[in-house]
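Handoff note, outgoing to incoming analyst
You'll be picking up this chain. Sequence as last confirmed:
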Amino acid sequence: MQDIVKLIANYTAIVAEAIAVVFIIIGMLGALVIYMRKTFLFRQEYKAMTESRTHLGHILSVALEFLIAADILKTAISPTWEDLGQLAAIVGIRTVLNYFLSKELKEIEATSRT
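Most recent structure output, in case you need it:
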């Protein structure tokens, strides 16, 4: 039974990482399309930059959450004290990144509304 749970957790972690990669790729392409369209078609360089950064920021935030979930699943499979320490560091760093990313996105959105 434990082997089945470990196998499911391992495959789920791989799927979560793959989803994060897909989100990042889609976010990059979407941000590029927004930037190119606003810059070259409408000549709105500043708006192009802020909208593309906002779009990419939201996508990166979601991708970070999937990566955190994958790390938690990997550590749940065979936790050692070293693995738990690494997980704590990774989750801490990614949480701080996500916090500041969300904070910056809120500031950008508040600025663009006015």
